[in-house]
Write a structure and sequence with these properties.
heterodimer; A: about 300 residues; alpha/beta; four-stranded parallel sheet; 12 helices; about 40% helix; B: about 170 residues
Amino acid sequence: MQLSTKHLLGIKSLTTSDIQLILDTATQFKEVLQRPIKKVPTLRDVTIVNLFFENSTRTRISFELAEKRLSADTINFTASASSVSKGESLLDTVNNILSMKVDMVVMRHSASGAPHFLAQHIPASIVNAGDGINEHPTQALLDAFSIREKLGSLSGKKVAIIGDIMHSRVALSNIYLLKKMGAEVMVAGPPTLIPVFIKEAFDVQVEYNLKKALEWCDVANVLRIQLERQNQVLFSSLREYSQAYGVNKNLLDSLSKEIVIMHPGPINRGVELSSDAADSKQSIILQQVENGVAVRMAVLYLLAGGKAENN
Amino acid sequence: MKTILNEQQLAITIQRLSNQLFENHLDLKDTVLIGIQPRGIYFSDRIVKELGKQIESKKIHYGKLDITFYRDDVRQGLHTLNQTDIPFSIENKNVVLIDDVLYTGRTIRAALDALLGFGRPAKVELCVLIDRRFSRQLPIQPDYVGKAIDSIISQKVKVFWKEKDGKEEVMLIE
């Protein structure tokens, strides 16, 4: 009853039993979050540092809440307000913190592979909170948990991931996880935002027409259009993007069945998702956020628990 | 291998315990019964079923508690998590913890800690099927006992239930 790995670096290195264990454990933690006192003492002997080299509010708060609910001691590190701005290397930064006897590191970094690099050099357990355009495993896990909660299971379900697939670590982690758990995956969006060989590389369907994608799927996971990319000539304008690929209530009502709407947040209302779609009863966006804390509690609990055997 | 309680004795014991509970609590209005996962649940299900013969089932407040997060040996290994379902408040209520075997008392200590997360009970009592007396590692004693037995560390008490094992029996195993 333990994970096959000492770290959570990505969905790619998880087995299906690992994923099953995390999701089942998260179910129990979700119950804890409904109690009058939402705290369990399990990780009270553990110190966790949240190493965020990239901006994040949602993920960082979610991890911090998860850690505190497990009674762990937490330390927050933001790159801007630290010696990294004085030129300190990643390894030095982390080793300095580790000398203060920190047990686990939750890290978000703009370089893909940064947590993997760290895992080879330090003894602590590492949780990847997003690395470059590689993976965001806890997001995929909470997405899967939310789908399972809403639809009963993942196997055989049709999930369409819509938007900027090319630059999205959320999309990649989701693709890995959904494929491992037996779901059917489609990526949809403008051709400029979908990698050319994605169909062959990951065995996913590719669709450039939004309505066809929504008609096909049971669940639509809508990704944020990164406004920073607007001037990279990947699409003509935000308005044209939302006309062709924005999900709104009229479009949802025109489909032959009611589908589930998801979004990792933050939403650009009116661009990839309209307010009437985001706030509709088909949307499980707020449940995703709630489930995020439970899933992260499960991950931290499973990584910290049991004999700390270092390979 | 020795049989401590056979099928008939087990049924009578459960009857007696539920009568004792009924006697002390009467209408169970302010009482809350909580079975301890995973094995106490089979026993607590039976107690509640037996009580249901005297009191309307819907008036019985019955919940299930998993104490895995409160164990004191949490770093020695991960245990399977079971469901906790306490769909009511325990604030100011008389709680009766129900477990099948009382041995060192550590499970009950964990259960008491877990209860703190749900409110402040007026009183907490303990009902067990088997009390392995003189084996306690903490100062914890039961209020309702099915049968008290003497046992040594190398022995194990195993409770068999029809739903799970196909037979009803309590055995002392070497």
